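Appendix B. Raw example, untouched.
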Amino acid sequence: MNKLLKTGILLASSLFGAQAMAVNMECYVDTQAYDHYTTNHCEALVWGASTATAVFRISGASKPIKSVIWSNAASSCGTSGTSCSFTIRAFRSNKAEALILYQDNTWGTASATALFEDGR
C-alpha cells in the first residue's frame, strides 16, 4: 500500500510539473523574409539596419490566461495581452520576460531573447 501511495504522489507531482512548464515564449525578429516564431530565442541578420522589430508571444498554455504582465526588455508592453512587439537595436541582446496570470488564480513565467546583426 505504501509503495502504491508513493507511486501515486510521484505521478501526480510530475503531471503538475508538466503543466506548470507547458507555457513558452516564442519570438521572431521582423525581416523582409517570411519570419517564423522560435521558442526561447530568436535572431536575424537585417542588412544595413540599426533597428528592427522583435515580436514575442506566449504559447502552449494549458489553461485560460487572464492577463500577461510583460517586463525586462518588454516592459513597454505593460499588460498588452499574450503578444508584444518593440524596437530593438543591432548587436544587443533583448530578454523579454512575462508573468502569466491564469483565470484559476495561478501563475507562471516565461522568457525569450531576441537579437539581430546588421551585416557589418
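End of appendix B.
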